[in-house]
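Lab channel / #folding
Pinned by the channel admin:
"Please post every new chain as: sequence first, then the structure tokens as a reply. Keep commentary short and put observations after the output so the thread stays searchable."

First post following the new format, from NK:
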Amino acid sequence: MQKTFQDVSLHCLFDFHGSTSWHLQWVRNTKLARNISDRHHELVSPSQFPNSYLALLKIDRFRRSDLGIYHCQANNSMVLTHLSVDIQEAVIPTHPPPTDTSDHTAAIVALSCLALALFIMGVVLPVVVYRHRVIFKLRIKRWFGKYEDQDTREYDVFVSYCAGSSDDTFVAKTLVPTLEKKLHMDVYVEYRDFELGEAISINVIKAVEKSRRTILVLSPRYLENGWCRFQFLNAQIEMMAKRHKLIPIMLEDISNHKDLDMDLRNMLKMVKYVKWPSDRRKRKEEKFWKHLNLLLPKKKPKIEYRKVSTASDSYLPEAEVI
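Reply from TO:
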């Protein structure tokens, strides 16, 4: 299929000096141009030239096959004269004139960005918020909550666990060191802070009353130990009086344990618990500590002073980020 470019008009004006025996016509390759398909040939007498005739050849949708030499012939029975016009490919544009598509491209990009933003806001964002709705609620509550270290309680958390079992390792090696050194909590724990010679029940009551939270390290051993059950009941009483909050840590699954009574089962439905990752994957552990930190008391950042070796032995403040 040949390419179509533009329209071409050829004008041939001839002065016959009043004679009527002359003929004027366009010829290409010995053929009259008016017999060529898609051609328009006219012979007119311009008013401003009364003794002349104008041969007009208009070629619509000029194609590459139309290139060549065109002759304007004027003749009578004795004389033939002609004027040649050679139309070369150089004067014909080989491609359509370029169109400016920058505006269209910019509009497409803008619409694509808008569609992507609407998709993220309408689909992706609600899904992310729903999957992490608990964390979002805790963060908002913590941001707008008041500081809790202005009361008369001495400790931030009391750790309730089944002492003398395999839970000791988790509490002594992992939980308490992280609470104190990384999360900057004041911890009350049995193996270190219970008063010797004091009844266990009195120690438990004092620990709950002196602390802003009670962390329950839940495992099958915890359910099977009577003193652990006593610690839970005291913490529950304080919680019911709205003076205390419980933070259950699910060290091992106890949902189907035979000793899981109704009180503890209902508490797990009411209070958000944190599940310790048994596979100890780093990413899951980081998520565990972030979740736990949001449940701990909100405290004001402390400012510690470190000594600078100068002549005046001055001290510089050093903020501790909580």
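NK: The two ends are 77 Å apart (CA to CA).
TO: also worth noting, DSSP finds nine helices and 14 strands in the chain.
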